[in-house]
Write a structure and sequence with these properties.
The complex is a heterodimer. Chain A is built from 7 helices and no strands. Chain A is an all-alpha fold. Chain B folds into 3 domains: 1-105, no CATH class; 107-187; 230-317, no CATH class. Chain B has helices at residues 21-30, 69-82, 94-104, 120-129, 170-176, 199-202, 205-254, 256-270, 278-292, 298-317, and strands at 8-14, 35-40, 44-51, 54-62, 65-68, 86-91, 107-114, 134-139, 144-150, 153-159, 182-187. A 6-stranded antiparallel beta sheet of chain B has the order 1-6-2-3-4-5, sandwiched between helices. In chain B, strands 7-11-8-9-10 form a 5-stranded antiparallel beta sheet, with helices on both faces. Classes of the chains: A mainly alpha, B alpha+beta. At the A-B interface, helix 3 of A face helix 8 and helix 10 of B.
Amino acid sequence: MEWSLFTIIFWLIAGVASFYFSLGNARVWTSIAVGFFLILLCEVIPTAMPYLPGVDMPQVEAMGYIIGTISILVMSHGFQEYYVFSRTLEFEGNKLGVYLATLGVIAASLVFILINPVPDAATLRVIRIVENTNWVFLSLINIDLIRKIHFNVKDSPISNGFVAFMVVFVFFFLWRGSELYIQVYDLAAHTAEFPVRYRLSVMVSDVANLLSGLSVAGTFFYLARLLR
Amino acid sequence: MILLPKGNPVKENLDPGKVILPEALIKLQVGRFTGYLRFDTQEGAGILIFRQGQMISALFEAAALRVVGDEAIARIFAQSLAGGALLNIYRLSHDLAMSIHALLHGHVLYRGQELKLIDIKALLGRCRDERINGCLRLYTDERIALIFYRDGSPLGFFHDGSTDIETTADTSMSVARLPGAKLDVLTMEGTEEGELSDLLESIEVKGIWEREVENRAAQKKNRQHEDKRSRQEQEKVYREKVVAHLSETAERHIGKIGASLVEKELEKVAGPVAPLTPPLLMQFFEQLNKAARLVAGPAKVTEMIGEMKKGLRGLKGS
């Protein structure tokens, strides 16, 4: 079964939905929506590389992973902002600031990659592990943070949207957690010794990746409906 | 009610609250004025009688009050400063001024007798027999006439517009023929002119005036303070009603966070106690519109704010 095709389609829908959502809604959603949109980039870049001549470079692959890391950091920052708002009812900043700050961080990361030696396979593996580690632990933290937000806005129209986000982060945790497991123990190199673990981890990763894309797209459509 | 005929009007329908009365009284003293000043106030009527520039009598009469001298002057000043009073100044002859003075300080023998119900001839005969010094006061709601008696014999007549005691009875007796005419019989004790002192000299009129002005200012300040307190109390009650309505509506539409947003935004635009004026409320709705969109969609927020505004119109009307 060609998981990656469906996965990319879902991420494409999720990315467009989240970016469109970030434009049409209040500032508080900007960081969250931009963070989810960046997943599209970090998913598309590695998938598209084999099909795009001239971009099969380690720097491009590294940037894909780094954007993945930035993605979870930005959306976590967004949920933190929403949590602070739900507790204090105070909010500041503007959308343009979020867009520019995110672009700034991406640009700075690119400069960092370009001024350093070309990343080899080991470096790329480390960068990938750093990305997945961030995803795994921030997913757990975000599930707890979103639970608290849901409690604070319990009977408001948006409250069920946060339940959907909790489901999304459970899929994220499974997706990135199983990838991290494979990477940390280098199970790909030990498939003969641990075939079940490896296949199970790959399957969980693929299914959770697919469900992540699906749930992100669904969540943003659901949010758009709640915030009509 | 002090019933006196109008003499020769010098000034009529003045507002004594706009006159510095001690200065006006000094002018009358310097001008050797003879006549009386009548103050019709909201509480009662005051009379100041002048003879040759001397204030020989001060009287203030209300429903259950009759004061003379400095107390009467203080009342007249206080009531004049309170506003809504009228001052009329009438010139009289020397004799008439003295008679009026004696009359005001005399005794009432009969009051408010319906003329058509009494035997006027028998009454006049009794005055003559008892050698009464006094006067018969004939009056209707509009007109008054006095007939002065000395030792039981008619001395003369005084009616609206006359400055002296007249000897012809026509005008005075015409009052008696008017429908609803009434009669008072007043006796007066003769007053020796030498016994009368000038109240402007014996009483510290300027001091009384200044005290009343101060009292008036203090009363005004107190009243303003009371008004302000009452207004603040009303505004507080209105604010509580508004906050309750807005919070309840917000909670119904967007949950408990809606009620918290209402309190927060109200505090931002109007502080904790400021009155909720229409411009502040408009500003509040703008802010709430932005804040509420973090937890609800535009349609829901618009519906909520519309219901809030509708409810506020109802609160204003109540």
